[in-house]
Task: structure prediction
Amino acid sequence: MDFSKLLAVMLLSCLCAELVPANQVGVCIRNCAQCKKMFGAYFEGQLCADTCLKFKGKLIPDCEDVASIGPFLNRID
Result:
């Protein structure tokens, strides 16, 4: 009986661990969309979203922090 409880706890722990990165990726992509709305053609939204997926939401862009969105900004000549 104790083994089944342990197995259930381990299974729930694994499921919860998988949900956190998905949530972080969602926040990352929503932030990319917000920055795209703010900066328009000056912001590479697709590149930002691709980066969110590549790094699994570990690098969340902040539209007010140039360091976090610098790689996604471009000049329009």
Notes: The first helix runs from residue 2 to 39. The chain is about 70% helix and 0% strand. The mean pLDDT is 83.
